[in-house]
Design a protein that fits this description.
The complex is a heterodimer of chains A (167) and B (136). Chain A is α/β, with parallel strands linked by helices and 167 residues long. Helix content of chain A is 22%, strand content 22%. In chain A, helix 2 runs antiparallel to helix 3 (38-52). By secondary structure, chain B is of the alpha/beta class. Chain B is 11% helix and 27% strand. Chain B has 1 helix and 15 strands; from the N terminus they run H-E-E-E-E-E-E-E-E-E-E-E-E-E-E-E. Chain B has one helix at residues 8-22, and strands at 24-26, 31-32, 37-38, 44-46, 50-51, 56-57, 62-64, 76-77, 82-83, 88-90, 94-95, 100-101, 106-107, 116-118, 123-126. Chain B has a 6-stranded mixed β-sheet with strand order 3-6-9-12-14-15, with no helix packed on it. Chain B is globular. The chains are: A alpha/beta (167), B alpha/beta (136). At the A-B interface, loops of A face loops of B.
């Protein structure tokens, strides 16, 4: 049986050895049907490899195929976030939830999004398709399709093919 | 007690190991009040700072010394302060009680009580503070 989601992830990395191990166990946990011992083993291994890379991604998060994690360190993702296909995530990225106020909830991210180093996306915001989020930016407003986001507080600029050459 | 200082060695080794595992560099000279909470781990650096009670610190936070000569110093932080992900608080500044420092903010100036600080360089956007934050 061929695992389609996993093979798409391998395509993004170029080779099998490039992918961090926690991502392998993350995909296996989501795609394989639940079994008494196998799921327990996958959960254990996933927890161990997450701890090594200082990553906190709950295994129930919806992430589309083709996820690329550049340098896996200190990545924190809320359990209610939804991430689309072909997304790049780098070190220090936070996709956080908000507990109070009008933006209560977690972000929803579209397809073909490039999220730079140390950037933070917080609250119930929608990021469209084909968006480039520059390093160290702070996003707490909705972002339309085909745009570039940078700065703190963030500035949005329209550009066709924003992530061309990046993804 | 000076003579018994060798008893600190195993605790120091354990402390360094746990710091390394959690991705936290926490100075032993830091003066931290009760109720400190690390919400997430990884990339945290805390220098010789003074922190009050019930402080929440997120990941990728830097609190430390900055400046040269007589202008150099470390921050002093009050009670019930929340420091968001990726924030940097450096230099001889004084941060009041109930202050909320937003994610990716850079703070080097004095902040009054109940302020909400965001952006680079740090700007005060409101005086709601950490109202309704604790207890979740």
């Amino acid at each position: 049986m061929k695992n389609e989601v996993l093979s798409k992830d391998y395509q993004r990395y170029g080779c099998k050895s490039g992918m961090p191990l926690f991502q392998y166990y993350f995909r296996m946990l989501q795609t394989t049907p639940s079994h008494k011992f196998i799921t327990r083993w996958y959960k254990f291994a996933y927890r161990v490899f997450c701890k090594i890379n200082h990553i906190e991604i709950p295994h129930g998060v919806q992430i589309g195929a083709g996820l690329y994690i550049g340098h896996a360190y200190s990545i924190i993702i809320n359990r209610d976030t939804i991430i689309g296909e072909n997304v790049n995530i780098h070190k220090g990225v936070t996709l956080g939830g908000e507990n109070r106020g009008k933006r209560k909830g977690a972000p929803i991210i579209g397809n073909k999004v490039w999220i730079g180093i140390n950037s933070t996306i917080v609250g119930n915001v929608k990021i469209g398709h084909d968006v480039l989020i520059a390093p160290n930016s702070f996003v707490n407003i909705d972002v339309p399709d085909h745009s570039i986001v940078f700065g703190n507080p963030c500035v949005i600029k329209h550009k066709e093919n924003a992530t061309e050459g990046y993804i | 007690m000076e003579a018994l200082s060798f008893l600190r060695i195993p605790f120091m080794l354990l402390y360094k190991r746990e710091c390394r595992k959690a991705g936290i560099q926490l100075s032993l000279k830091a003066d931290i009040g009760e109720g400190l909470k690390f919400e997430h781990y990884g990339g945290i650096v805390i220098g010789d700072v003074k922190i009050g009670k019930n402080c929440n610190v997120f990941h990728n936070v830097t609190l430390g010394y900055a400046g040269r000569g007589t202008k150099g110093g470390s921050p002093t932080i009050g009670d019930n302060v929340v420091i968001g992900a990726g924030a940097v608080v450096v230099g001889p500044c004084h941060i009041g009680n109930n202050v909320f420092i937003g994610a990716n903010a850079y703070v080097y100036q004095d902040i009054p009580d109940n302020a909400v600080v965001t952006a680079v360089p740090g700007q005060i956007i409101s005086y709601n503070g950490t109202k309704g934050y604790f207890g979740h």
